[in-house]
Queue: 2 jobs
Job 1
Amino acid sequence: MAQVTLRINGYAYTIGCQDGEERHLEAMGEEVSRRIDGVRLAAGPSGEARMLVMAALLMADDIFEMRGRLEAVAGPQKPDPKLGRKLSRMAKRAEEIAEGLETK
């Protein structure tokens, strides 16, 4: 298993991923960092956990919008069990990171 260290809002986060997925994880980290920079510009500096939540909500809004567009074009899709498991793992990891921030 590979590990990637992402710098987001001045903090380093070491995240595990499958071998070969490092570049994809780095790209996702860059997107999160870009979103946090946007939150900071729009709302000013805030607590780390709050900025991560705001960035996550903005990204979730984009996902809902894209899903709506896709369904309008292709119709409703069957649920993907792999996607559900992946989202659950991501949510668990986000909670672990947020817990770590709260204890600092």
Job 2
Amino acid sequence: MRGIILSILLGALAGYLAGKIMKGGGFGFWINLLVGIVGGFLGGKVLGWLGIAWGSTLVGQLVTAVIGAVLLLWIISLFKKK
């Protein structure tokens, strides 16, 4: 149970940080959570393909999730009309 709560908080924080990096603000708890979770998965895959691994530390997981979330937001912005 503690791991699930930590994953939710980590995902929300990663989504929030990615929102700050990409747009200057977050998107609310639920969207930040979704972006952070998907970003964590995407970041893990992309960094794995590049041979980069920071281990399973909390900081490493957060950095990986933020990188993935920023990448996800960038991909979404490519399809968004201005």
